Amino acid sequence: MSRERLYLYDTSLRDGAQTTGVDFSLDDKRRIAALLDALGVDYIEGGYPGANPLDTEFFVKKPKFAHARFSAFGMIRRTGRSASNDPGVAALLDAEADAICYVAKAWDYHVRVALGTTLEDNLAGVAQSVELAVQHGRETMLDCEHFFDGYKANPAYALDVARTAYKAGARWIVLCDTNGGTLPHEVERIVGEVAKHIPHDRLGIHAHNDTENAVANSLAAVRAGARQIQGTLNGLGERCGNANLVSIIPTLLLKKDYAEAYDIGVSHQQLAALTKVSHTLDELLNRAPDRHRPYVGASAFATKAGIHASAVMKDPATYEHIVPEAVGNRRRLLVSGQAGKSNILAELERLGVALDKNDPRLARLLEDVKEKEAQFYAYEGADASFELLARRSLGTVPDYFEVERFSVNAERRHNAKGEYVTVSEAVVKLRIGEDTSISVAEGNGPINALDLALRRDLGKYQPFIEDLELVDYRVRVFQGGTDAVTRVLIEFSDGSGENWSTVGVSANIIDASFQALVDAITYKLLKAGAK
C-alpha cells in the first residue's frame, strides 16, 4: 500500500525566537538550520527578512542544505498599497529563499478591527501577494492567522481567505490555531470541512500550545486531511510554545496508524539522532534539557519503583511504548529509596560493573542508597554520584586528592571606579599524595569562586580537568525554616560532549555545593583513567 507524503515545516528560527529568554545570534541560526536539515525536515523558516537586521542578514545568502527548502516569512501587502509597491513584500522577494510564507488575517473581526479595512480588500491583498510571489518563481504559502477562531465566527469568510490563496497559486494553505485555544475534536472537524474545498495535499496545520494540545491538534489535522505540519524544536514559541516537532516526528514514524499511512521523509537513522538534536538546541540556548520531555528526556524511559524495574528487565516492550534507542535515548532504571536490587543491578550493569545478585555488597549498597535518600540525597538525578557511591563500596575509586579545608568569603566594597560591587572569594587547601597546595579564586558568587579555586591547581591531575564546564546548578530546600536542609544538583560537561550530574546535601548550601563539586571532579578523573 502506497503511503501519502507528509511535509514537516520548522518555524524554530522565527516562532522560537519569540520564546521568553531566547535570542538567536546569526551563528545560532545557521547551526540550528544545519541540525534541522540533517534531521530531514522539509522546510526551514529562517525568519522575517526586513523586520530586523539579523533576519535580513540571514537571507543575504541562502544556506546550503542537503534536503530542506529555505523559507522566508512575512505579511501580505498592506492596505492602501499594491503588492508590487509594498516594502515588506519586496523584502521577501529580495530574500535568498526557496519559498515565501505569507501571513494574512482569516478572522473577519480582525480584518475590520485590527487592520481597519474591508473584507474584500483583505482578500485582494491575499490574491495579489500570492500571485506576485508565484510570478517570481517562489513556492508560496499562506498562513491563515486565527483561522479556527475565524471559522467559528464566520466560516464562509475564513474559507474565502483559504480559497483565495489556493486559486492564486499558493502551494500550501496553512490553517493556524494562533491563540492555541482550539481543541483536537474541533480541529479535526474544521480541517475536515476545509478539505472538502481545498485538496489534502495543499493543506497545512500550525498549532500553538496554550491548552497543551498543539501536538494532538497537529495529529488531528493530519487525520482530517492536512499534509503539512508546522512546528518547532522542543516546542519553542511565544506564550506556551508551538507544536513540538520532537514529539510529532517520532509519533508519525513509529506509531503504526501513522507509519503505515504516511511517509515523512525522515529515516530511522535520522530519527536516532533526535535526542542529540533536542539537547544540542538546549545547549545552544544555555538551557538545561527538560528531563521529562517525551521521547528525548532523561526520564522518558526511566523506571523508579523496584517491582516495575524487575519487570522492565524481563520484558521492556510491555513497559515502554517504543524502543528508547529508536530516538537516540536509553533506558534508565533509577536508583532511589523505592528501588530494589533489580534497579541497582541494572544500573551497575550499564556502568560495566559485574556483580552477582547474591553478593553481600549489593545489599549493603542498597541500604546505603536508602539511607542517603532518607537524608534527602537523590541519585535518580545524579548518575555520577551514584556511580561513585557504588564503586566506592566496591573499593574501585582511587583517592585522587584530599580537601583539608575550604572557606568562602563574600564582601561588598568599592571597586576602582568607585562603584559598589559584591565579590566572593574562596580558599581551598588540597593534599595530593605528599604535596599540599592552597588555591584562591574570586568568582561571580560563592559557588563560582569555590569551583574556580577547587579546579585552579590539581597538580598532576590538572590536564584532565581543563575542559570541564559547569552547565547547570539547581537547589532544592527541604524542611523550610532555620533548620532547612539544602540539596544541590550540579551538571558538568567536557570537551567530549558527555554530561554528568552530581549531588550534595547539607544544612549549609556552600557545603552541599562543595560535595557535588568534589564528586564531579572525581568522576571526571575516574572516567579519564587518571592514576
UniProtKB/TrEMBL annotation:
Residues 6-272 form the Pyruvate carboxyltransferase domain. Pathway: Amino-acid biosynthesis; L-isoleucine biosynthesis; 2-oxobutanoate from pyruvate: step 1/3. SMART domains: LeuA_dimer. It comes from the Bacteria. One of its GO terms (biological process) is isoleucine biosynthetic process. It catalyses: pyruvate + acetyl-CoA + H2O = (3R)-citramalate + CoA + H(+). It is an enzyme of class 2 (transferase). Keywords: Amino-acid biosynthesis, Branched-chain amino acid biosynthesis, Isoleucine biosynthesis, Transferase. InterPro entries: 2-isopropylmalate_synth_dimer (IPR013709), AIPM/Hcit_synth_CS (IPR002034), Aldolase_TIM (IPR013785), Citramal_synthase (IPR005675), LeuA/HCS_post-cat (IPR054691), LeuA_allosteric_dom_sf (IPR036230), PYR_CT (IPR000891). One of its GO terms (molecular function) is 2-isopropylmalate synthase activity. Pfam families: HCS_D2, HMGL-like, LeuA_dimer. The keyword Transferase applies. Belongs to the alpha-IPM synthase/homocitrate synthase family. This is Citramalate synthase. It comes from Methylovirgula ligni. The lineage of its organism: Bacteria, Pseudomonadati, Pseudomonadota, Alphaproteobacteria, Hyphomicrobiales.
